[in-house]
Design goal:
127 residues; alpha+beta; Beta-clip; 2 domains; two-stranded antiparallel sheet; globular
């Protein structure tokens, strides 16, 4: 997965172990955990993340040809997206969910529905 604006992270089987290699920078580490680590742990445990669909309060601009990770803040009016590819401690502390915008997209307009994966453990169901 080529995420715009982030350093290389990878997930691979080495012998009988699944290895997640994350970049040392905070933003790249969090992006790798959300985009690669979380789906891997869910798949290995059989757990399922329940995405929540809300409308966007503002548009999301995306880089064509690359996936974009965007942090989302929930409100009664819908998702308030942060700038795609920007992950700081402040944006992460305000976020309630994240979404990955696919590489074939140029973004989404305000009012469009978007499924966000919640960052809270209550959004995960176990078998």
């Amino acid at each position: 997965m080529a995420l715009a604006g982030f350093e290389t992270a990878w997930l691979a089987w080495e012998n009988d172990s699944l290895v997640l290699d994350l970049p040392p920078r905070f933003d790249g580490m969090i992006a790798g955990l959300l985009a690669l680590g979380m789906p891997a742990v869910l798949a290995l445990t059989g757990a399922i993340a329940r995405p929540v669909t809300r409308t966007l309060r503002s548009n999301i601009s995306s880089v064509p040809g690359l996936s974009d990770l965007v942090l989302l803040r929930a409100s009664d009016e819908g998702w308030a997206p942060d700038v795609p590819g920007v992950i700081t401690l402040a944006t992460l502390s305000r976020a309630s969910a994240f979404a990955i915008i696919p590489p074939d997209s140029e973004g989404l307009p305000a009012g469009a529905p978007l499924a966000g994966t919640a960052l809270s453990p209550g959004s995960i169901t176990h078998p």
